[in-house]
């Protein structure tokens, strides 16, 4: 069965103009073009469009999405990871909704009772919020003060566009590592180590860690709740996989 570009636009909410653009850049070519010049899409194309939209939700750029789709990782495996990430985010938002709802109820009850102490358990105010990077940043600043200052100077010089581009690159890199992980690729595999080398070169834009510092950075990804959450939103266990791959890289290339 095939669907016209108008059908796909209606089903997906993606405009026909955007679909034509995706075709022009090779991201989503139609299955075939009719004699009338209209584009037609089959089931495989709809599944590919779903993947594109999922990765757009992660704020990936079109080039990064193209690279991920061209890696030919099993589609079901990747979708399972997207599904887990979405479920975790749903659960987190549901917890936040309960937190806010509970706070509203306690404030209203306290107001009705003229009770100055309206909150029964203050720790409940913060259920569902993700911790900040402050503790990890403090540790990095203490252990590697020169590197910290250098990285801060680079960050301050970045424009908003530079920052957005860098964040997309980081997210795309995490997704590529997740794809290796979910299919059971060893962290010592040359393809994984090539990805870690790209990660290391990215870090070197801000500071140049030696072997111990690079291994320490990988450990921070695992131990710091915010860093670990960011990795595990992509795929459960990704922080540990990234750390282990960085250890192999540091031992082989930086020692």
Automatic annotation (TrEMBL):
The family database entries (Pfam families) matched by this protein are listed as: MerR_1 (PF13411), TipAS (PF07739)
Record-annotated HTH merR-type domain positions = 2-71
The record's listing under InterPro entries reads: DNA-bd_dom_put_sf, MerR-type_HTH_dom, MerR_fam, TipA-like_antibiotic-bd, TipAS_dom
Quote the SUPFAM superfamilies the UniProt record gives.
Antibiotic binding domain of TipA-like multidrug resistance regulators, Putative DNA-binding domain
Keywords per UniProt: Activator, DNA-binding, Transcription, Transcription regulation
**Record's protein name:** MerR family transcriptional regulator
According to its UniProt entry, this protein's organism is Streptomyces humicola
